Amino acid sequence: MARGRPRLAGPLAAAALPLGFLAVFFLWPVAAIIRLGIGPGVTRALTAGRTWDLVAFTLGQAAAATAIALVAGLPVAFLLARTSVRGNGFVRAVVMVPFVLPTVVVGLAFRALLPSAGVLAIVLANAFFNVAVVARTVAGLWSHVDRRAEDAARALGASRVRTFLAVTLPALRPAIGSAAAVVFLFCATSFGVVLMLGGGEYGTLETEIYLRTVQLFDLPGAAALSLLQVVAVVAVLVAGALVRRRSTALRLRGRADTARRPSGGEWVVVAAAYAVVAALLVPVATLVARSFESGLDGYRALAGRGYRGSLDVTGWQAVVNSLRAATDATLIALVLGTLACVALVSLGRARIRPGIVESVDTALMLPLGVSAVTVGFGYLVTLDALPGDLRTSAALVPLAQALVVTPLVIRMLLPVLRSIDDRLRQAAATLGASPWRVWREVDVPLAARSFLGATAFGYVVALGEFGATSFLARPDSATLPVVIGRLVGRPGELNNQMAYAGCALLMLVTIAAVVIVDRLRVGSVGEF
Q1: What is the CA radius of gyration of the chain?
Q2: Which residues form the ABC transmembrane type-1 domain (predicted)?
Q3: How far does CA 318 lie from the centroid of its chain?
Q4: For 154-182, how does the pLDDT look when each residue is reduced to its tens digit (9 = 90+)?
């Protein structure tokens, strides 16, 4: 037993920082809001028929949007991970653009495209946002899966479909399970989309929490709904953990497979991927076209402070604020996410009970599924107790964004690190390599592509974060999504034109960020 303790000291130390961050910046604020609201109103909220209608609609639309995002995202993941086709860099950038757009603006785009679709518009808009999650997460593992087992199945007479179902799909199950869990959580907590497309007829737990907290000041009712939301989140994360626990059929054995030109039936999948990309471009093109309806008036006004100085910052200052906050948030999330992955993988190798490891993993995912309204108000209630009163600090925005980005970094890195063949590590250790050198020489090269992919993904998520930022950003540090959200809520054609111009600017910044990270991957291992 004594010999086993040093092996656990490192993983436990690595887990301490992300878990401490979670406790201070998530559990404490959320617990404070729930404690303030607990009272007789909780019972009334839980026994109301409307509450359970909200639960049913929240889960139903999230499940439907998740299914659509999975079906649409898998062909794109294949295109990015396994093929060498001109234009793949463009595809990587395009699939990220929807994810960074403020939800309220996408709601407006889908309302223009599907004015009377109702539930269908909500489901499609949520799926539109999350194709990137599926494509990026699954491609990260798919690019590393050894082709030899697939080639052997084909040589034995299996069709491409049967080879995929029997060989490739089991290997991708951890990444698909991770992506599905994250997408479901995003769809279940969708705010702007439901607010814009629900038309007062459809609502989710998220929109109801916002209504009761901000407009009705019904903290007991909001607390009850937050509790229901947490229960639903935990259930989804536990289901995702059970999927991830299933062992993969293929392991990472070394260098990632080189992408190659599609052959035969693979062109059908490539065509499907390009069809998905084309569908993603329709709402994007609608937003860009709307930004030019009045020529360049919206862009000119955005370069200043809007109509009669209605904005606290210029559009360019908002871009700088967004880039600065996203950079800080991404750096924080990469440190926390990497430490968490190292801890989870190391604890798994140390033969710790799987239930304990998965419990830690589930806890780290909780911020994805709890209302940004609850977290934001929790910060205002609790953080004055910390030195320096972070409630008035510019550091609060990147800290809140890092809370959302860190679980995404974990979900992208963890499946790859867990799938690395242990025999590679054992061989390195047999040759005298220390545990640190084994990580440096084996794990880091194999996970390098996924790490850069997580960097790009996390960065654009932070760029587009709207929920918590809208509550926490100071007037002089408003980010571009916050400015866009404020403009959408104001009357006047010029404000609308400025909002659409801001969306076009945000898309341009997103594409630039993805392209820059794409360039950093040149010469790296793999093809993610």
Answers
A1: 23
A2: 55-238, 319-517
A3: 22
A4: 888 888 888 888 888 888 888 888 888 88
Query: Counting Cβ atoms within 10 Å, is residue 160 exposed (0-12), middle (13-18) or buried (19+)?
Result: middle
Q: Around Cβ 204, how many Cβ atoms within 10 Å?
A: 28
Closest CA to 468 of 457, 482, 455, 454: 482
Nearest residue to 34 via CA among 219, 206, 301, 191: 219
Nearest Cα residue to 371 out of 208, 238, 128, 184:
208
Question: What is the residue whose two structure tokens read 């659409």?
Answer: 500
- Collect all residues with Cβ–Cβ distance below 8 Å to 152 and sequence separation of at least 6: none
3-state secondary structure 24-36: HHHHHHHHHHHHH
Domains parsed from the chain with CATH numbers: 5-251+258-520 (1.10.3720.10)
Length of the chain: 528
* 142 contact partners, CB below 8 Å, separation of at least 6: 77, 78, 81, 82, 168, 172, 175
For 176, 340, 351, 418, 518, the CA distances from 410, given in Å and listed in that order, are: 14, 7, 20, 11, 20
Please tell me the distance from the alpha carbon of residue 445 to that of residue 425, in angstroms, as a whole number. Answer: 13
Distance CA 415, CA 363 (A): 17
Long-range pairs of 112-117 with CB within 8 A, sequence gap ≥ 24: 112/286, 112/290, 113/282, 113/283, 113/286, 117/197
pLDDT in tens, 390-434: 777 778 889 889 998 999 899 888 888 887 777 777 787 787 777
Long-range contacts of range 229-233, CB-CB < 8 Å, 24 or more positions apart? 229/188, 229/189, 229/205, 229/369, 229/370, 229/371, 230/30, 230/366, 230/369, 230/370, 232/55, 232/58, 232/59, 232/188, 232/205, 232/369, 233/185, 233/188, 233/365, 233/366, 233/368, 233/369, 233/370
pTM value is 0.75
Q: Of 249 and 413, which is predicted with more confidence?
A: 413
The fraction of the chain above a pLDDT of 70, given in percent, is 89
